[in-house]
Amino acid sequence: MENELTHFNEQGRAHMVDVTGKPVTHRTAVAAGEIRMAPETMQKIREGSMKKGDVLAVAQVAGIMAAKRNWELIPMCHPLPLTGVDIAFALSDDPCRVEIRATVTCLGETGVEMEALTAVSVAALTIYDMCKAVQRDMHIEKIRLLQKSGGKSGDYQAKE
Fold it and tell me: Each residue of 134-159: pLDDT tens digit?
């Protein structure tokens, strides 16, 4: 792990790292998370009977939009020319949860880990928002980076 704090200038103040001299490489990041809920809430998602509409379709678009606009949300993140964003959902009944996985790619000078993590987070928040009239005690959990590739630091694979 690198000990150098790169997001601070000589005066100790925050700044956006200059990536001008870094080589453009293919970057990929995969993040995941989940939102736990009651069986009744899960049933409404499966049936498409939430009053606000198709929960997963809206959450998918929200996750993609979040990845694209990550640089506007997280200080010091660079605007990146993303070449792909995919949001996938898996529904589980034991325990009841929607698992969310985001894969983000680009050709760029810096990685897309934050874009993938933001996509998962906003997709989960969107699911919560669309279902909160039915259940307010849902839990958003386990948001994490699963893997990343490209760049000077090389590949990363989370240990399960």
Answer: 999 999 999 999 999 998 888 999 99
